[in-house]
Amino acid sequence: MRQYSQIIMGILLFFGSSVVFAHDPIFSPGPHVLFKEGIEVHVGVHREKAGSDKSDELGLELAYGLTGDWAAGIELPYLSAENGTNKANGTGDAHLFTKYRFWRNDSLGVQETAAVLLNVILANGDDKDNPPLGSGATDTLLGFAYGYESLKWYRWTSLRYRQNGENNAGLRRGDKWLLDFVVGIRPKPPVYLKADTVLILELNAEQGQRAEHNGTALAGSGGTQWFISPGVFWTLRNFAIKAGVQLPIVSNLRVGQAESDYRAKLELEWHL
Question: pTM for the whole thing?
């Protein structure tokens, strides 16, 4: 009888958390959106290292649930970048984003959802620093995300295309395709109103086109990278901690580019 009650409470927790707190991957987008008139406050630290290039980002993200299926928000980053002996600190390019969940299917202990998303990356960061903190151009990113969530297993996949603009110096960074496959597992059944842990493993692919300067392709740009990314998603009611590390497993970059050593994230989220 007790085991039956735990299963029922787990199902209630699962469908309750789909309103209060849904899970998403760490290094890729998921399809979850906020409940209507909900507010998400998101603070994150992101570190990247590639050869002698290093960068740290502290980001503040605010999102609002326009409806039960549509959310929008803004991300404001503060960057610290290093390239050899050159260092720079300051605000990076702000992101305006929106996500619309166009499909949802609920069954006993399982929820499947799909969404489309749009990001606009503004050219408000300083691109005159060395290394630059902003791109000097307005970029857009369009994507699709699918998610499967059960009491024990999670599956996500996403596909995104980033189109980069041209800055005042005539430089246009190469457009990029991003593809993600993710699995997650909950080691222990959820217990109502208690902390919940989901372990996540991602496979992330990036395919970048060549950059151009005044219409001429630059040789040392573009290429493909694959990453394996373990992480953890820990929640307690309307608060969550997400952490993970992204490690390169395949790197096929054109000559002249530093290969990624690692990328790491630590994020805190509150839903109000």
Answer: 0.90
